[in-house]
Amino acid sequence: MTLALSSDQLLSTTRAVRHRLDLSRPVPRRLLEECVDLAVQAPSGRNRQRWHFVIVTDPERRAALADVWRAGVATPGASEPLPERDVRRASVARMDRVYSGTAHLYAHLHEVPALVVPCVEGRTDHAPVLRQAGTWGSILPAAWSFMLAARARGLGTCWTTGNLVDERESARVLGIPYDDVMQAALIPVAYTLGTDFRPAPRISRDRVLHWDQF
């Protein structure tokens, strides 16, 4: 099923879905493949197309990956406290719901029908900003396109990074060659309980838009 959404609706209602993931309904492989087909239409640095998508649907491997993610989330210091300016911004989006959603995902991640790990060839450990920008800029647009394509098909997603706390272990579980391929995230994918998502509260445009200088 493809939802009848305008481009503006698609862009403004692709939410981070946690509480409303349908854990009981399998996601057809065909839909996930369609999302990847659209994802790789995204731009990549010098058209190198070094992206990879590891999609995990096997229950045992999902459980193993979820355990790595949970250990990462629970690692002391994995999430730094928000600076005061970020707390003020975050209050617009009701952080209590964000924390509740994370707790829900912590308890149920292994039950999510598909876990998607976008990857890119080439590591940026200790690399200068220019190289980092080129590498991340060659996977993040594709991953976001995947999430938009999923939303258009009635699927919910959420950008998470708990697997990156121990990326080597995550790579071991998935057979990813750690020295050559870098993971970017772990994206749960499932049908949503309802599709009535709306634009989220955001800080005002005049606080983020700068003309000609910062």
From TrEMBL:
<keyword id="KW-0560">Oxidoreductase</keyword>
<feature type="domain" description="Nitroreductase">
    <location>
        <begin position="15"/>
        <end position="189"/>
    </location>
</feature>
<comment type="similarity">
    <text>Belongs to the nitroreductase family.</text>
</comment>
<dbReference type="Pfam" id="PF00881">
    <property type="entry name" value="Nitroreductase"/>
</dbReference>
<dbReference type="InterPro" id="IPR029479">
    <property type="entry name" value="Nitroreductase"/>
</dbReference>
<protein>
    <submittedName>
        <fullName>Nitroreductase family protein</fullName>
    </submittedName>
</protein>
<dbReference type="InterPro" id="IPR000415">
    <property type="entry name" value="Nitroreductase-like"/>
</dbReference>
